[in-house]
Design brief:
The protein has four helices and five strands; from the N terminus they run E-H-E-H-E-H-E-E-H. By secondary structure, it is of the alpha+beta class. It starts with a strand and ends with a helix.
């Protein structure tokens, strides 16, 4: 599973990195096999800085224990609720991506519920 955080563009790069690290720490505290930052791709010659999406990519290996996927999605949902700035998070599993950003609470809830149903038995 790949979780990509695009921090609020209003944040400076250091604050954006802290935001991503906090979410990664919360994910790592779950019963997952691992939650590591994706290896950054070198910037093309002449580029000014690193792509924020690359900095915000966390690769998560889920454990076999039941409910971990749902707990991870709940963690991302809660994190977005607490950090309601202009952050955007996308979660990709088996090529299926859900993007969460400035949707209303009801819209976000409906999207997340449908996504979880597609990737769990219930």
């Amino acid at each position: 599973m790949r979780v990509v955080v695009a921090p609020d563009p209003e944040l400076d790069p250091e604050a954006g990195e802290r935001v991503v690290r906090r979410l990664r720490t919360e994910i790592a505290a779950l019963d997952v096999e691992s939650a590591r930052f994706e290896a950054a791709v070198p910037a093309p010659p002449g580029a000014k800085g690193t792509d924020a999406v690359t900095l915000g990519a966390v690769v998560v290996a889920l454990s076999a224990s039941g409910g971990v996927f749902t707990a991870l999605i709940d963690t991302v949902r809660d994190w977005l609720g607490r950090n309601s700035a202009g952050h955007r998070v996308s979660v990709t599993i088996d090529g299926d991506t859900i993007e969460l950003d400035r949707a209303s609470d009801a819209e976000r809830e409906a999207l997340i519920d449908a996504y979880v149903r597609r990737h769990t038995d219930g």
